[in-house]
Inverse folding.
C-alpha cells in the first residue's frame, strides 16, 4: 500500500510521518498532498485562540470528550512557540490531553511555530487536510495565542472560538484591537473567578460594536462561560459550535461557501508564495548570485533592498 | 525597630577601620587574586569576604533574635533545646512488604533510633493498590506497599504506638492512610487521644514540586482541612500537616525559594482552617515543618533560623495568634538527597555529616540522615546504620549540643538570616499580589521559578562554577557497592493475591454502607458533619482498600494533571 | 537531506514517581540545542509513551525514571515499539540504575543509559551523533 492509501485507511504512523514532512517543508510532500486533496472536505474544523494561560488545551481536551461521546473521531493540532534564540521548542500541550492517548479515535499532534518561510498557516492548512483525509470527523486547532496566527486561524477553521478569562485587564483590549471580528464564539473560561461578570459585560459591548462595523452575515457570536478543568460549560460550548455549524449550512450552504472560498484563497496564496520564493531562491543559487554580497552592499548603503529585488526580477531571473 | 546595639561613636570607628581593612585586602589581592570571580552559596546568593557588626547594626537583640523558647524564636523553639533532650532521630524507612519494613523498624529502634518514619511505595503514594495496571513494577521499590488495614497491622506489629511517634510521608491519600493507622491502633487497644505522630499531608508542595498528583487544589485543601479539624478534636497529639520544603528544594529550588514557598503553603493552610471556622490557637500548634538541609552549611542554618522568626511573626501579626505555641515553627529535617553522588559514594557520609550538623545548628526537632547508598536505592541495613550512627556521634561525642544556638551573634550568620527573611518576604508579597498560592500554582509560577533555578544550577555545574567532587572536579566512576539492597520481584504477585483475598473475605454489606457514607460526606459541603475522617475510619475498618477510597475521591472531586509548562 | 529537518524528541517519565527535575532540565537542554521536545510529564504508562511517540513522529524517546520500576517499563516500551513497527525510534534512558541492570536494559534495546553526573552537552552531542531525522516520505 502506498503512503496515500495508508493515510486514507487511517494509518497513524503514515499520517504522523507525512505531517512531519509538511512541518519540515520537504518538497516531496506536494505530490502526496495533491493526491490527498480530493479526499478532503468532510471534517469540521474548529480553531481555538486566546492568550497563553487561558486554558485552551484543557478546553480542547474537554471538547474531545464531548465529541467522542457522540462517536465522532477527533484530530488535534496544538501549537507551541519556538524559542527565537535556539530554534528549539518544548511542546507541552499534550500533557493536558493525556486521557486520549490510548484512544484510537483521537490523533494529537504538537507543533512548534518555527517561524519559517510561509509561516505556520500553510503547514497548518496542509496538516488539517491530511487529518481530514485520514478520516477525522472533527479537527481542533489550538494556536499559541500570540501574534498573527491568531487572526490567520480564522482563515483555516469553520468555527473560531476565542477564549479569555476574567481578570486579564488588557486581554479584552487586545480583542478589541484586532481579533474581534474573527471570533464566532467567545468563551470566558475559569468563569468562577472574580471579575467574570465584568469581562462578560465588556465582551458584550465589543461584540455589539463589532457587529455594527463588520457583521458576520447575521451570525451573532454567543458568550459561553466555562470552567474547563471541572468540565463545566462544555455541553453549552458544544451546542454553540453546533449552532454555528447549522448557520454555515443554512440557506443552501451559502455561509459555508464564504468560509471555503476564504480558506481556498488563503491556501492558494500561501502555496504560491512558498513555491515562488523557492523557485526564485533556487535560481539565485544556480546562477551563483551571492546574496551575502548584496546584503553587504545594502548595509553600506551603496544600494537598497528595493533596487536589488527589482534588478533581480527584471534582469537576472526572468 | 528598637534601640541599636552599638553606639554611634563605636559604629563610626568600626566604619573607619572597615575601610582600612578593605584597602589592605585589595592590596593583598594584587599579589594573590581571589580564587573565584564571585563567591556565592549553593543557591547562588553572593557573599562578601567579611561580615562585621556593621552588617547587623540595625538589628535589635530582643526583638529580632531574642532568647530560646521566646518570641520571635530565632534561637530555637524550646528554652532548653538539646540540653534537655536530643532531637528525635527519625530515619525514613520503607521497603518491600509490610513485614520487611517492620523488620527494618525494629532494627533501627534496637540501634537507638527514637522515632519512626514511614516511606510508602509509589502506588501507595499515588492512591493505587498494587494490583492497579499503573502500579506494574513499582511494588515495594521505593517504600512499603500498603493496600489495606491488614497491611497496616503487619507494618506496626510489636511496636508500642503510644510510646513511639510515627511519621508517615503520604500526601494526596494522607487521610486514608491516617484512617488506617488510627483504626489499626484502636483495633490493637490503643487510645486515639494518646497517639503521636505526623502525616505529611502537604498537598500544595505536590503541585509545586513533588508531583504526586491526584485531586485538583481546592478539594485537596478541603481534605487537608478535614484532617486538621479531626486531629484538633480527636487526635490531639498528632501533627496533621508537615509543611514541606524538602521536596521543593530537591526539585531544584534555592534556599530562599524553599523558605518562601513553604511558608506560603503554611499561610494557605492556616487560611483554609480559619475559613472552616477553626480558632487559630486551637490548631496552629499542631502544624509542623520539614526542611531540607543542603550542602551549603551557613545558608541552611540561616534559612532555619529565619524560618522560625518569619513564622512567629506571621502567626502573631497576620493571624493574630495569642498562644505562643501557635507561633512555633517546629520542624523535621532531612539531609539533601540531591547533594549525594553516585560517584565515590563513601564521600556521601561526609556530605551527610555536614548537612546534619547544619540542621543541628539550625535547631531541628527531628532528623533523618541519608545513607551513603541512598543515591542508588532504598538504603541497605549496613548503610543506614552508618547514617544513624552519624547522628548519634554528633549528638553525643563532638560537643555541639552542649550550648544552645551557638552560632547566634556571628555577624555572618545573623546577616545571612536577615537576608533569607528579607528575600523570602519579597516572594511572600509577590504571592499575595498574585492572589495566593493556588492562583500562583495555576499560573505555574512557583514551578517555573524552581525549574529556572534548577537549570541555572545545572549550567553552573557544567561550567565548573559550582563544584561537586567526584563529578565535575576530580571526576570518578561509580563502583558497585557490596551491600546493595534488592526487592524480591515475587513480592508484587504476593501482595496482589493478599489484597484480593482480603477483599473477598470482608463483609460486603458493611463495606458498601461505609463507602456510601464516605461518598455522602465528600459530596456534601465541607463542615464537621461532612468531615471525611470518621467515615474513612469506618470504611477501612470494614475492609476498604486505599485505592477504593482514593477512586471515590477521584470520582467525586476530579483528577488533576500537571500543567507542565516551561 | 533538507536543512530545515528538525530532530523531534519525546521526553517522558514512565512509572509513578514525580521526580521531574531531571526530565525538565534535559527538556530545556534539548530545546536550547535546537531540538523540538514533546514533553508529556510524569506518570506515563509504556502504552501512552509509545502512542505519543508515533503520533508525534519523534526520532528519539528519552525516558527518565527514579522509582526503580525501569526493569518493567523500559523493555515494555521497546516491545510496544516493535509491535507498532516503530523500532526505528531510538530510546535512551536517564536516572539511577543498579549497575547490573544497565547491560540488561541495553540488551533489551535501550540505546544508551545516562547516569547522574552526565553533562547536558555530552547528552546533546550524543544525540547529534547518533540520532538522525528520518527520511522524507515518497508518494
Amino acid at each position: 500500500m502506498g503512503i496515500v492509501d495508508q493515510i486514507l485507511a487511517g494509518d497513524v504512523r503514515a499520517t504522523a510521518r507525512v505531517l512531519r514532512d509538511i512541518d519540515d517543508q520537504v518538497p516531496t510532500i506536494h505530490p502526496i498532498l495533491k493526491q490527498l486533496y480530493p479526499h478532503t472536505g468532510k471534517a469540521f474544523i474548529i480553531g481555538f485562540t486566546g492568550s497563553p494561560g487561558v486554558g485552551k488545551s484543557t478546553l480542547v481536551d474537554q471538547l474531545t470528550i464531548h465529541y467522542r461521546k457522540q462517536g465522532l473521531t477527533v484530530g488535534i493540532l496544538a501549537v507551541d512557540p519556538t524559542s527565537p534564540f535556539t530554534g528549539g521548542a518544548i511542546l507541552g500541550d499534550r500533557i493536558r490531553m493525556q486521557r486520549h492517548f490510548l484512544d484510537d479515535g483521537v490523533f494529537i499532534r504538537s507543533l512548534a511555530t518555527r517561524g519559517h518561510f510561509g509561516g505556520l498557516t500553510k503547514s497548518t492548512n496542509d496538516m488539517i487536510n491530511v487529518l481530514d483525509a485520514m478520516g477525522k470527523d472533527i479537527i481542533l486547532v489550538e494556536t499559541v495565542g500570540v501574534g498573527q496566527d491568531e487572526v490567520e486561524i480564522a482563515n483555516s477553521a469553520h468555527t473560531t472560538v476565542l477564549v479569555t478569562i476574567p481578570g486579564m485587564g488588557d486581554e479584552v483590549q487586545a480583542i478589541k484591537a484586532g481579533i474581534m471580528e474573527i471570533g464566532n464564539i467567545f468563551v470566558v473560561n475559569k468563569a468562577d473567578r472574580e471579575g467574570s461578570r465584568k469581562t462578560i459585560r465588556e465582551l458584550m459591548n465589543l461584540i455589539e460594536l463589532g457587529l455594527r462595523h463588520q457583521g458576520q452575515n447575521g451570525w451573532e457570536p454567543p458568550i459561553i462561560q466555562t470552567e474547563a478543568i471541572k468540565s463545566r460549560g462544555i455541553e453549552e460550548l458544544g451546542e454553540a459550535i453546533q449552532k454555528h455549524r447549522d448557520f454555515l449550512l443554512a440557506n443552501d450552504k451559502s455561509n459555508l461557501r464564504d468560509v471555503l472560498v476564504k480558506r481556498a484563497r488563503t491556501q492558494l496564496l500561501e502555496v504560491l508564495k512558498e513555491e515562488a520564493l523557492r523557485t526564485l531562491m533556487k535560481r539565485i543559487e544556480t546562477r551563483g548570485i551571492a546574496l551575502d554580497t548584496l546584503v553587504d552592499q545594502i548595509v553600506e548603503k551603496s544600494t537598497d533592498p528595493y533596487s536589488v529585488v527589482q534588478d533581480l526580477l527584471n534582469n537576472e531571473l526572468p | 525597630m528598637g534601640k541599636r546595639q552599638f553606639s554611634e561613636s563605636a559604629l563610626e570607628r568600626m566604619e573607619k577601620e572597615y575601610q582600612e581593612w578593605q584597602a589592605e585586602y585589595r592590596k593583598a589581592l594584587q599579589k594573590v587574586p581571589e580564587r573565584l570571580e564571585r563567591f556565592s552559596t549553593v543557591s547562588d546568593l553572593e557573599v562578601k569576604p567579611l561580615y562585621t557588626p556593621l552588617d547587623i547594626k540595625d538589628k535589635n537583640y530582643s526583638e529580632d533574635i531574642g532568647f530560646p523558647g521566646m518570641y520571635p524564636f530565632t534561637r530555637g523553639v524550646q528554652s532548653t533545646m538539646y540540653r534537655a533532650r536530643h532531637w528525635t532521630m527519625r530515619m525514613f524507612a520503607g521497603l518491600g512488604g509490610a513485614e520487611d519494613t517492620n523488620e527494618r523498624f525494629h532494627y533501627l529502634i534496637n540501634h537507638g533510633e527514637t522515632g519512626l518514619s514511614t516511606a510508602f511505595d509509589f502506588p501507595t503514594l499515588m492512591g493505587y493498590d498494587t494490583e492497579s495496571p499503573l502500579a506494574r513494577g513499582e511494588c515495594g521499590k521505593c517504600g512499603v506497599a500498603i493496600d489495606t488495614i491488614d497491611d497496616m497491622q503487619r507494618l506496626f506489629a510489636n511496636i508500642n504506638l503510644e510510646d513511639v511517634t510515627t511519621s508517615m510521608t503520604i500526601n494526596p491519600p494522607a487521610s486514608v492512610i491516617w484512617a488506617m493507622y488510627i483504626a489499626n491502633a484502636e483495633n490493637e487497644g490503643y487510645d486515639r487521644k494518646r497517639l503521636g505522630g505526623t502525616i505529611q499531608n502537604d498537598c500544595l508542595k505536590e503541585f509545586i514540586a513533588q508531583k504526586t498528583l491526584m485531586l485538583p487544589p481546592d478539594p485537596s485543601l478541603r481534605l487537608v482541612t478535614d484532617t486538621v479539624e479531626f486531629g484538633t478534636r480527636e487526635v490531639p497529639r498528632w501533627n496533621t500537616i508537615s509543611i514541606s520544603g524538602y521536596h521543593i528544594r530537591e526539585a531544584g529550588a534555592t534556599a530562599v525559594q524553599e523558605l518562601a514557598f513553604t511558608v506560603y503553603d503554611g499561610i494557605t493552610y492556616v487560611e483554609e482552617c480559619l475559613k472552616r471556622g477553626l480558632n487559630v490557637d486551637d490548631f496552629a500548634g499542631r502544624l509542623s515543618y520539614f526542611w531540607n538541609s543542603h550542602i551549603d552549611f551557613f545558608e541552611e542554618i540561616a534559612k532555619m533560623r529565619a524560618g522560625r522568626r518569619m513564622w512567629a511573626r506571621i502567626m502573631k501579626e497576620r493571624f493574630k495568634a495569642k498562644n505562643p505555641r501557635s507561633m512555633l515553627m517546629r520542624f523535621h529535617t532531612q539531609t539533601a538527597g540531591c547533594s549525594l553522588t553516585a560517584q565515590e559514594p563513601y564521600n556521601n557520609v561526609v556530605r551527610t555529616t555536614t548537612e546534619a550538623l547544619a540542621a543541628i545548628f539550625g535547631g531541628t526537632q527531628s532528623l533523618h540522615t541519608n545513607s551513603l547508598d541512598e543515591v542508588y536505592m532504598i538504603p541497605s541495613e549496613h548503610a543506614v546504620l552508618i547514617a544513624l550512627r552519624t547522628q548519634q556521634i554528633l549528638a553525643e561525642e563532638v560537643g555541639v549540643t552542649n550550648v544552645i544556638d551557638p552560632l547566634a551573634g556571628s555577624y555572618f550568620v545573623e546577616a545571612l538570616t536577615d537576608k533569607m527573611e528579607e528575600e523570602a518576604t519579597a516572594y511572600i508579597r509577590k504571592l499575595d499580589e498574585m492572589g495566593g498560592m493556588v492562583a500562583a500554582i495555576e499560573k505555574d509560577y512557583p514551578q517555573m521559578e524552581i525549574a529556572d533555578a534548577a537549570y541555572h544550577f545545572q549550567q553552573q555545574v557544567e561550567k565548573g562554577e559550582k563544584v561537586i567532587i567526584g563529578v565535575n572536579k576530580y571526576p570518578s566512576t561509580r563502583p558497585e557497592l557490596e551491600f546493595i539492597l534488592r526487592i524480591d520481584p515475587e513480592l508484587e504477585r504476593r501482595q496482589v493475591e493478599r489484597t484480593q483475598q482480603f477483599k473477598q473475605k470482608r463483609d460486603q454489606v458493611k463495606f458498601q454502607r461505609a463507602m456510601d457514607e464516605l461518598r455522602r460526606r465528600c459530596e456534601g459541603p465541607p463542615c464537621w458533619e461532612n468531615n471525611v475522617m470518621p467515615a474513612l475510619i469506618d470504611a477501612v475498618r470494614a475492609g476498604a482498600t486505599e485505592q477504593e477510597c482514593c477512586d471515590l475521591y477521584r470520582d467525586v472531586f476530579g483528577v488533576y494533571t500537571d500543567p507542565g509548562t516551561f | 537531506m533538507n536543512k530545515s529537518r528538525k530532530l523531534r524528541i519525546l521526553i517522558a517519565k514512565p512509572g509513578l514517581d514525580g521526580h521531574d527535575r531531571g526530565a525538565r532540565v534535559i527538556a530545556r537542554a534539548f530545546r536550547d540545542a535546537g531540538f523540538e521536545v514533546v514533553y508529556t510529564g510524569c506518570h506515563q504508562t509504556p502504552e501512552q509513551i509509545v502512542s505519543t511517540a508515533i503520533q508525534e513522529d519523534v526520532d528519539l524517546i528519552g525516558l527518565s525514571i527514579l522509582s526503580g520500576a525501569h526493569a518493567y517499563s523500559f523493555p515494555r516500551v521497546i516491545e510496544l515499539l516493535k509491535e507498532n513497527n516503530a523500532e526505528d525510534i531510538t530510546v535512551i534512558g536517564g536516572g539511577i540504575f543498579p549497575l547490573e541492570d544497565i547491560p540488561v536494559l541495553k540488551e533489551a534495546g535501550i540505546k544508551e543509559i545516562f547516569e547522574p553526573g552526565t553533562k547536558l552537552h555530552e547528552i546533546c552531542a550524543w544525540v547529534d551523533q547518533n540520532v538522525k531525522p528520518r527520511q522524507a516520505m515518497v508518494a
